[in-house]
Design a protein that fits this description.
This protein has about 350 residues and is of the alpha/beta class. It is built from eleven helices and 13 strands. It has a domain of about 240 residues: Rossmann fold (3-Layer(aba) Sandwich). The chain has a seven-stranded parallel beta sheet, sandwiched between helices. Bound molecules: nicotinamide-adenine-dinucleotide.
Length: about 350
């Protein structure tokens, strides 16, 4: 089966990471959540690296229980040197394979899904992270945990943009706690395994990554809007519409993630996102209007029951650390990224949600 992901995106990522990619040559890499939005891109990047760049192929072992992988995850294409195993990472993974890299990207990332599956959300971040850290400890592998910008909670405005050193403002109760607190404990586990067992751990805190490959029924803000656009219906903006976000196009994000996986300093956490522009959700609709060249009707509505209220008011990364240590530099402008994303959703979404 052929990929639904744009080949030009994969090519762009490969071009940008060529100089560091050779360290994957001949290695074994365990990737959890490899059938999700980000995981499927990783797999296709590794497959392209194998075909075009690496002296020896990197062998990828994908673990995913498909809980939120959706249709695109269930029907993802297969590639040489990529082995898929349907496995729930809250259970130990027994294997004789020795891994050089363990990348733990399994998680329940969409607020709609974690509202419905709070226990699974907490467990994949805690038991799942612990199980994967055990493998990294056994094999002396480099370990990378996908945390989230949500670990900062609802930030004090004087700490926006958020630096990695900001401790955050998170509630341990409420509809978002299963995700936020799970990721915080996952980070604590990374800290413990690094400090006490000498595991080379890194933590990535992604800030709203978007792009082709997001499922139509994912229910994050941009798939929601793309869906309404396709159906020619007004956009629903939850709450006041004044809450701010930043949006990082997928190619920029994957380059940053790979830089952390391959070159991150042991024990360190990195914000990966695009700090510019920080915009309200209402302004995001204005951007989409410009991209599609027509006015879009919008309804400001109460949060539906299916969506966890108590949203953080602001979200904007300080990326100096990744810039200085890893030469991470997002280059895709929001209007360009939106145009690329909406061209893809226009061709693939049905507009039924
Ligand atoms: N995409 C973003 O903007 C973003 C932002 C912050 C954090 N993250 C984190 O990055 C990671 C990847 O995000 P994504 O957008 O690809 O999410 P996604 O929901 O598209 O994919 C996650 C994958 O993990 C799998 N999974 C969940 N629980 C599992 C379990 N117990 N065992 C095995 N597999 C399991 C799901 O089936 C899914 O395929 C997640 O951990 C997420 O929390 C992503």
């Amino acid at each position: 089966m052929t990929s639904l992901l744009p080949s030009s995106d994969i090519e762009e990522i490969i071009q940008r990471i060529q100089s560091v990619a050779q360290s994957l040559s001949g290695k074994n890499l365990l990737l959890t959540g490899g059938r999700g939005f980000l995981g499927r891109y990783f797999v296709e990047c590794f497959a392209r690296l194998n075909a075009e760049v690496l002296e020896e192929p990197v062998h990828i072992y994908v673990l995913d229980n498909l809980i939120t992988a959706g249709e695109l995850g269930r029907t993802a294409p297969s590639f040489p040197n990529v082995t898929f195993l349907q496995h729930n990472v809250i259970e130990p993974f027994d294997t004789d394979i020795t891994f050089d890299y363990v990348v733990h990207a399994a998680g329940i990332a969409s607020p709609f899904h974690y509202r419905a599956k709070p226990i699974e959300t907490l467990e994949v971040a805690i038991a799942g992270t612990r199980n994967m850290l055990e493998i990294a400890k056994r094999d002396h592998a480099r370990f990378c945990f996908f945390s989230s910008s949500e670990i900062y909670g609802d930030p004090d405005p004087k700490h926006v943009p958020m630096q990695e050193s900001y401790r955050g403002n998170v509630s341990c109760q409420g509809p978002r706690a299963c995700y936020d607190e799970g990721k915080r404990v996952g980070e604590t586990l990374c800290y413990i395994y690094h400090e006490h067992f000498g595991v080379h751990t890194n933590t990535i805190r992604p800030f709203n990554v978007y792009g082709p490959g997001m499922q139509e029924d994912d229910y994050r803000v941009l798939p929601n809007f793309a869906n309404r656009l396709k159906a020619n219906m007004p956009f629903n903006v939850y709450g006041t519409g004044n809450q701010t976000r930043t949006f990082c196009y997928l190619t920029d994000a994957i380059v940053g993630f790979l830089m952390v996986i391959l070159r991150g300093t042991p024990g360190e956490a990195y914000n990966i996102g695009n700090p510019k522009p920080e915009i309200s959700v209402s302004e995001l609709v204005d951007y989409i209007e410009k991209v599609v060249g027509r006015p879009i009707e919008r309804n400001i509505i109460e949060y539906p029951d299916s969506y966890p209220a108590d949203e953080p008011l602001r979200r904007c990364p300080d990326i100096h650390k990744a810039r200085i240590q890893l030469e991470f530099d997002p280059v895709v402008l929001l209007e360009d990224g939106l145009a690329r994303f909406l061209a893809w959703t226009d061709a693939t979404y049905e507009g039924k949600i």
